[in-house]
Amino acid sequence: MLDDAHALARLGRSTFIDTFAHLYEPADLEEFLTYNHSADYYEDFLKDKDAAAWVAETPEGEMIGYCTAAPCSLPAPDMPENSGELCRLYLDAKAQGKGLGTALLERALDWIDEHFDHAYVGVFSENEGAQKLYRRYGFEKVAEYHFMVGNHPDLEWIMKRRS
What we know:
The chain is of the alpha+beta class and 163 residues long. Helix content is 39%, strand content 32%. Strands 1-2-3-4-6-5 form a six-stranded mixed β-sheet, with helices on both faces. α1 packs across α3.
C-alpha cells in the first residue's frame, strides 16, 4: 500500500502542477501540495474503509491516471445524509483524450451509487471541460465555495448528481 501511496502522490502532484500551477504563487502551491498530494495523505486515504481509489496504468505498469471517491466532505448546503463524493480525477497529459478519464469516472460513479444515496463533485469554476463532462453524467451546480490552495482562494463549484 505504501508503494501505491507514493505513486499516487507523485502522479497527483505532477498532474496538479501541470493543470493548475500557473494560477498560484509558488509558496501557495507548495503549501497545498505538501499536504494534499503527499504519500502520507494517500496512505491515510487508502486505509479508509469508506473510501476507494482506481488507477489507470500503461501496459508497462506506469500509473497515468487515478480517481478517488469517499463520503462527501464538501460544504454543500442542505446535504442529505449518505452522500458520496467524487474526490479526485486526474490524468497525466499523455493519457488524456483516450477515454481513460471517462472509464475512471464511470467506475467511481458505479461505486458511489452502490455505497451512497447521493453523489457530489467539486470542480474549479473555470474548468469548463470537467464541468461539461460532469453534466453529461447528470451533475448540476448547486453551490459555490472557496477552495484554498495555500492562501489563495479559488472559486469552486459544488455539483450534485440528479437522482
